[in-house]
Amino acid sequence: MAEDYNNPQAAGAAGETQQQQGPQFALQRIYLKDSSFESPRSPAIFQGQWTPKINFDIKTRSNKVQDDLYEVVLILTAEALLEEQSAFLVEVHQAGVFACKDFEDEQLEQLLATVCPNILFPYAREVIDSLAIKGSFPALMLAPINFESLYQQQKQAGAQQATGNGNGAVTESTETSTPEAE
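Below the sequence we write its predicted structure tokens.
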């Protein structure tokens, strides 16, 4: 559709449309920033019964790359313990660059801590599963994560800490340890 710059009403309507658009969010790129796999007890670990205890840790961090562009890194660590010794340890740093324009600070913080990790999680989960299989272990299918709930828990913990000791600093990192057994 062509713009009619000679018609003041049409030009005014176009300007109002741009102002009414509000905040803008777009995924620019998803990439694997880092990954590692360790199996310190191989090949002896394959001799026994496979009934591991799985420890799982989640962290997120974000930083501004340039105006309206933010890198978000989702760090997932999974460790399989067999008889209290590590069978394998896998860590994945799945990252993405996101364009976030015209968000208020609180909205931006929540977006970077919930929506972005939610987008990155399926990619990170696939890498963890793939590395476990390549290490000759059974598939490690991680359950979905409610990043909104984790964010709210972090905010509540930060508020309680602020009232308890007068320190109101809240980090952009979400850290959770949850045992998940396969």
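The longest helix spans residues 105-134.
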